Amino acid sequence: MSFPYLSDVVYHLTGLRLPLPFATFGILVALAALAAAACLRRELRRLHADGRIGSARRIVKDEQRRHSPVEVAPHTLVGDFTMVVLVAGIAGARLFHILEHLDMFFQDPMSMIFSRSGLSVFGGLIIGALAGLVLLRRWRIRVRPFLDAIAPALMLGYAIGRLGCQIAGDGDWGMAADMALKPGWLPTWLWAQTYDNNIYGELIAAPGVYPTPVYESMMALGCFAVLWAMRRHPFQAGWLFSAYLLLAGIERLLIEQIRVNVKFELYGVHFTQAKFIAVAFIAMGAVGMALLGRRTLLGMLPGTPT
User: Fold this and answer.
1) What is the pTM (predicted TM-score) of this model?
2) DSSP symbols for 245-286
């Protein structure tokens, strides 16, 4: 069962029809952003206190309306950073979804641009990251330590955001489930769902499709736990973010094996947009971890937490 709007949730729980046209996917995305921001703020505060990341420089207006630079702790800028990256990320997610479905876009451009469904997670991550890099350069924050700080936050936000896909039934489900392969101990709803009342209005034949958003949320939470446990690593700045890229790529590559997605062909090789980006993430993550895996001087000091 899917609940595209808050009113659907209330009706399912209470039987009351209330005018609450708030998209559940949007609510979960907002919660994901808040949770990720809180996680990032905590890490930036810790890294700033440990001397691993310096102060940021922000331009403000004084009483005479003159612009002047001031030094601020980086965690105080998380709110502004989150808003800019979130807006850019949503735009990027829509753009990459359109690029993946150009035939549908040319048929009805406005429908795809303003649709409540159809977002590419990797598109949001890439465009959001570019917007974030612009802010870091403007605030004169070192990029690699900041990326280490945001790595666990990205995984946590992704896990929560995927729950929004599951609840709304936005089409990010898997292929038809093979019930013959289902382990006897596993609940049926965790193997196959029909996503009744999904936001697409699509009818899915029983027994249903693989609920891939649930699997992604579970894997992302596991990856978050790994990154959180390794966040005090003694290696060079950027190593933890490289680990994030590796984990994110592996997670998405695995789920693409049972997801329904548009396939492209290049020189006889069939792939999806997500598979291509996932492989790139894995390669960049592995190379980054190898190059940055040397212990820093700070990490070798006696008493330094590892």
Assistant:
1) 0.86
2) HHHHHHHHHHHTTSB---EEEETTEEEEHHHHHHHHHHHHHH
Count of CB atoms within 10 A of residue 108's CB? 10
Structure tokens at 254: 């695995």
Q: Element (H or E) spanning 68, and its range?
A: strand 67-72
List pLDDT tens digits, range 270-288. 778 788 889 999 999 999 9
Q: What is the C-alpha end-to-end distance of the chain, expressed in Å?
A: 45
| Residue type present at position 208 | G
Q: What are phi and psi of 168, to 5 degrees?
A: -80, -20
CB neighbour class for 107 (10 Å; exposed up to 12, middle 13-18, buried from 19): exposed
Q: For the chain, which residues make up each domain, given as ranges?
A: 6-229
Tokens for 142?
Answer: 């070192």
pLDDT(207) > 90: yes
Question: Which residue has 């890229």 as its token pair?
Answer: 245
Task: State the helix-helix crossing angle for 24-49 and 143-168, rounded to 10 degrees.
Answer: 160
Burial of 146 (0-12, 13-18, 19+ CB in 10 A): buried
Would you place residue 306 in the very low, low, confident or very high pLDDT band (cuts 50, 70, 90)?
very low
> Under 8 Å CB-to-CB from 150, ≥6 apart: which residues?
36, 40, 43, 241
Distances (CA, A) of 6 to 15, 16, 20, 48, 64: 13, 12, 6, 40, 47
Q: How does DSSP assign 41-65, residue by residue?
A: HHHHHHHHHTTSS--EEEEEE-TTS
Angle of CA points 84, 89, 95, to nearest 5°: 135
> What are the pLDDT digits (tens) for 211-260?
999 999 999 999 999 999 999 999 999 999 999 999 999 999 999 999 88
What does pLDDT average to over the chain? 88
- DSSP states of 187-230: -GGGT-B--TT-TT-----TT-B--HHHHHHHHHHHHHHHHHHT
